[in-house]
Design a protein that fits this description.
CATH topology: Purple Acid Phosphatase, chain A, domain 2
Mean pLDDT: 97
Number of strands: 10
Number of domains: 1
Low-confidence stretches: none
Strand content: 15-25%
Shape: globular
Largest sheet: 5 strands, mixed
CATH superfamily: Metallo-dependent phosphatases
Radius of gyration: 17 Å
Order of helices and strands: EHEHEHHHEEHEEEEEHH
Distance between the termini: 47 Å
CATH class: Alpha Beta
Strand order of the largest sheet: 3-2-1-9-10
Length: 239
């Protein structure tokens, strides 16, 4: 059986990323896919981009990656942009919007928010009809996928409906629900088009939240109060 670790939404949080990568290594998993949002919010955009480039076999583009590398018109976006070198910015600009492959007879498609839209937000409490759009073919000639795996909303869950499986891997760097980094493991027979056993596992990893908050404060990241609240409480900041 092949095993793939799927991470997303690191948001420049080095302590969380290091803890997750250590857990993946301890499990003996060699293949890692990243579903975007490498940068933004935390203290270490430059370091996180380099680690992801060197560790993950595939990376897709997130909304923050797009905004930091291609727009950079807000305080937080500019703060991140000026800390990246030209090669890192080009890397973020050229990330694909989605990837797909077969595993254990299932067509799996992975993206940040939606295969053709980094800003489409499908939350865990959306209706089945709203969620079903994620399975649509992203281009002419493509198929509906059997499994859609995404990030963006920072809330990990698995749901089955209409013979489909929808998975959100949660967030490494700014997890909601619980103040522990989140990622997923996909296990099956890679490139196999005949049905075979397949499994999906959501993993929570404790990490040094206090260090992440301290690093952000020392780096004087924009919107520090909001970021600190989200890390400490696993909740969206509502002043």
């Amino acid at each position: 059986m092949d095993r793939i670790a799927i991470i997303s939404d690191i948001h420049s949080n080095m302590p969380a990323l290091e803890a997750v990568l250590a857990d993946i290594k301890e499990r003996g998993i060699k293949r890692i896919i990243c579903l975007g949002d490498l940068v933004g919010k935390g203290a270490n955009p430059k370091e996180v981009v380099d680690i992801i480039r060197n560790t993950c076999e595939t990376v897709v583009k997130g909304n923050w990656d797009y905004l930091v590398a291609e727009v950079a018109d807000g305080e937080t976006m500019k703060w991140n942009n000026i800390r990246l070198d030209e090669e890192q910015i080009d890397f973020l600009k050229n990330l694909p919007l989605y990837i797909e492959f077969y595993i254990s007879g299932k067509l799996v498609r992975m993206c940040h928010a939606a295969p053709n839209d980094v800003f489409l937000r499908i939350r865990s409490n959306c209706t089945v009809e709203e969620k079903s759009v994620l399975f649509n073919p992203p281009k002419n000639g493509a198929k509906e996928c059997d499994v859609l795996i995404y990030g963006d909303i920072h809330v990990a869950y698995i749901q089955n409906f209409n013979q489909k499986t929808l998975i959100n891997v949660g967030s490494v760097g700014v997890p909601l629900q619980v103040s522990q980094a989140s990622y997923a493991i996909l296990e099956g027979k890679l490139d196999e088009r005949t049905e075979a056993p397949i499994s999906f596992t959501l993993v929570r990893v404790p990490y040094d939240v206090e260090k992440a908050v301290r690093d952000a404060k020392e780096a004087k990241v924009p919107n520090f109060e909001k970021y600190s609240h989200e890390l400490n409480y696993g909740q969206v900041y509502r002043p």
